[in-house]
Structure formats: structure tokens, C-alpha cells
Amino acid sequence: MDINFKEYGRLVTEIRKNCYLTQNDVQKKIGVSMETLRRIENGIQEPRISTLERLSVLYKYDLISMLEKTRKSTSFFSDDLIKRVNKHTRENNFEALKQELTSIVEVLAYHSSENNSEAYRYYVQYLESIKSLTISSDRFPKNKITNFESLLVSMNSSRTGLLTDEYLFNLEVAIAIGLSVVYRDYGNNDKTIDLLTPLIEKLLRYPTHTARQINFIGTMVLNLAYAYHMLDEHEKVITAIDDILQNKLMTFSTDLTNELYKRKAVALFKLDNPLYKPLFLTVLMHESGEKRKQTCHIIKKQYKIDLGHCFNCHC
Fold it and tell me: Tens digit of pLDDT for each residue in 79-133?
């Protein structure tokens, strides 16, 4: 399991001490032996979920969720890795992306030979393929698109398409979102729609969703809405956003929800539906300070809609 158990044990120890409990206190209160707790806190033993649940109740702190946050940075499921990859792909900084992931290869290659693990070899194969990425692709749109498409293919050389697998690594979804943005930036809106529509449907079929996956779904719907806007298919924008916001399994951040409502308001405006104005006002009510001022400015500049007087934005 790609968990940094040493770091996890250190955090568990800190939490116990913050509760003013000794290992002996814990044993007396919930029956977890001092030896078991010692091994967990020293990072020697992979803890059982049932043990973590009992400790979580005692400490009033979710140790199971914390386990996920201590994934090693080399794990395909590492949230920190996803954030860094998102940053590099968003900035089209393929040199930094190569340096970031190439540095992980040596660690994984060691585990691959040590454990003879097919999973590790598969991961190393993917990371090694990044070395073929074209540098300075921001000057060449075709190179940029090729970079992202190559990344997706290299995730699994045996697959015939992204949707062949029943489930996808978060890293695969992140790269797909990056590709959809590049398609849209260069006017390939149909490709954006063709990529994102089945991908959203696939993720929505997952039996459960992590916060990261929910964010991915919302972001993909937002990019889908932008693509529909560019094709003047505003009714589809409204349908896509209404469908996802009415899905009770999806709980988006306030910022992402606002962005989705903005896209719907723009679609209503384009369709001459007077409901666009109260929707814009609702969005602005959930924003404050500089963010609200920026939104007022964009609405006024792009759509000639002046709502600043309602909030004294003076934009």
C-alpha cells in the first residue's frame, strides 16, 4: 500500500497526545492493546480499518480519512501529485511536468524490481513515456494537443480508447480535462464535447465518489458548457448544468457551483430569457470583495449587462 506509515504514525501520536491520553489510557478505554498502538504510531504496522474506527471515535478525529492524506507522492492516487500535474498542464509547462514525474521513476523502478510487481512496471512505463513530450509546445498548438493525447494513450498501451476501462485513475481524468481545455482553446469544440460527454457519464456511474472525483465532474460539465456556448448550443448548456446540479450525489464547492450558474445565466441571456438577470444576481450574492467586482466587470464587458449598481461594484 502506497502509504507513508511513518508519517501517518507520527500524526496519530500527535492526535493522541493532543487528547491528553497515554497509550495505556487508550487500552483501558477501548481495548486497543498498547503493543498494537505502539506499532501503528511507529509506522511498523499497517492498521486495520476496524482499529482506526475505534480510535477515531475515541479521539473524535477521522483517522481513516487521514490515512488517504498520507499517500506517498509516487502513488497514482496521491492528491498532491494530481494537484502538481494539474498545475503543470494548466500552465502548459511540459518541461516542469517531465522533471516532476521523471524524478519519481527511480523510486518506482526500484519497487518494480524488488516486488516484481506488474502494477509498478505499468506505472513506470507511463512515467517513462512522458520523456517523449515536446517541449515549448505553447508555440505550436498541434504539439500541445499531441502531448495530451500521447499521455492518455501511454496510460495503457493495450487500450483502444480512454473509455475501455471500467474505472480510471484520477491522473487519467486530470489529463483528459487538460486535453479538453486545449481542444477548446484552439476551436476544437466538437472534440471537447466528444471527449467529455461519455467521460462524465462514466464517472457518474461510479458506485461512490471522492471529493476529487466530484470536483472533476463539475469541472468537466463547466468545460462542456463552454464548448456548447462556442457552438451557440445554449439549450444544451442549460440542460447539462441543470442535470448535474439536480444530482443529489454531487455536492460542489461554492466557487464551482457559482461558475456553473454563471454559464447557465449566460445561456439564458443568449436565448433572451429574462431569468438570466436574477440568476446573475444570485451568483453575485454568493461572491464578495474583489471576486464580485471581477464578475461584475466581466458581465458588463462581455455581455453589456450592468449589475454593478446592485452591489456598488463601480465597475
Answer: 777 788 778 777 767 677 767 666 666 655 555 555 555 555 555 555 555 545 4
> Is 39 or 163 the better-scoring residue by pLDDT?
39
Rounded distance, CA 172 to CA 165, Å?
Answer: 11
What residues form DSSP beta bridges with 3? Answer: 71
Phi (first) and psi of residue 58, to 5 degrees = -65, -45
Express as a percent the part of the chain with pLDDT over 70. 74
Which among 175, 181, 186 has a CA at the least distance from the CA of 153? 175
Name the 3-class secondary structure at 71: strand
Cβ 196 vs Cβ 220: under 8 Å: yes
Residue 33 has a CB neighbour count (10 Å cut-off) of 12
SS3 301: helix
| Residue of 66, 83, 13 whose CA lies nearest to 44 | 13
The residue assigned the cell 498532491 is 80
Q: What is the dihedral of CA 194, 228, 245, 260, to 10 degrees?
A: 120
Q: Where are the beta strands (DSSP E) in the chain?
A: none
- Quickly count: other Cβ atoms within 10 Å of residue 127's Cβ: 19
By the 8 A CB rule, do 244 and 219 touch?
A: no
Size (the chain), residues: 315
46-70 burial, b if ≥16 CB within 10 A, otherwise e? Answer: ebeeebbebbbebbebebeeebeeb
d(CA 248, CA 298): 31
The C-alpha atoms of residue 289 and residue 246 are separated, in whole angstroms, by 29
